[in-house]
Design a protein that fits this description.
The protein is α+β, with helices and mostly antiparallel strands. Helix content is about 20%, strand content about 35%. Bound molecules: iron/sulfur cluster (SF4).
Length: about 120
Amino acid sequence: MKKNLICIECPKGCALDVDIENCRVVKVTGNQCPKGETYAISEIEDPRRILTATILTKGFPLKLLPVRTDRPIPKARISDAMKAIRKIRAISRVKTGDIIAKDLLGLGANLIATREL
Ligand code: SF4
């Protein structure tokens, strides 16, 4: 199977042609540097995303606190992560970057505040 991807690792945006066999990348062409191959392998074999969301606050005028994971998490676990995030309440003051939930679902990423509360 072949798949076309655009590398997003730098502004050049190389068009990648990716050969895939049994869900594994066997060849990448079109990349102008090694990062393109690494990106294609990650995107096909273990796609990950930074998750952004909001959590409810309690006792503050601001009702929703924006949050995000501090590193990408597996795309396949985003739904589970959202379920966990919906149960979290911000009940005390936080600064931008403060950890709201450490090692969310054991995925190796912390949930952090992206604004002050
Ligand atoms: S393959 Fe390299 S040069 Fe091309 S977009 Fe990706 S990082 Fe940039």
